[in-house]
Amino acid sequence: MSYLYLISQSYNVPAVSPSFLVDRNIIVKDFEENCVTTNGDGRMYILVTENGRDCKFCTNNPQLKQTLIKVREMNALPFEATLRKQNLAGNKIEYYFE
Q1: pTM
Q2: Which among 73, 85, 67, 86 has a CA at the least distance from the CA of 28?
């Protein structure tokens, strides 16, 4: 069993890359903050449903993290959205919900 699996044990669903979900309609169901992964700490696991299937993805994207924290404060989970991406300078990608 991998270290990554142990950290996000509460979401026992397949992990996908956020790029897999770009331009797809999803339902954001829940998220875990301050996860530690092999890529670093302070990450967030996001539990979503896409096309009737649950999956999760990991992100360190500040915009997604801030949006989800605000949504939780408003008691607005779950919510429907489309995951979008914006290409930034230096081959960086910014993801956001629309």
Answers
A1: 0.85
A2: 67
Edge-to-edge order in the sheet of strand 25-37: 53-59, 40-50, 25-37, 79-88, 92-97
Q: Are 67 and 44 in contact (CB under 8 A)?
A: no
Q: How far apart are CA 46 and CA 48, in angstroms?
A: 6
Q: Which residue has the tokens 């910014």?
A: 94
* Separation between Cα atoms, residue 34 and residue 84, nearest integer Å: 23
pLDDT digits (tens), the chain, 98 positions: 333 444 445 688 999 999 999 999 999 999 999 888 888 889 999 999 999 999 999 999 999 999 999 999 999 999 999 999 999 998 888 999 99
User: Beta strands 40-50 and 53-59: pairing type?
Assistant: antiparallel
Residue 73 in contact with residue 56, Cβ under 8 Å? no
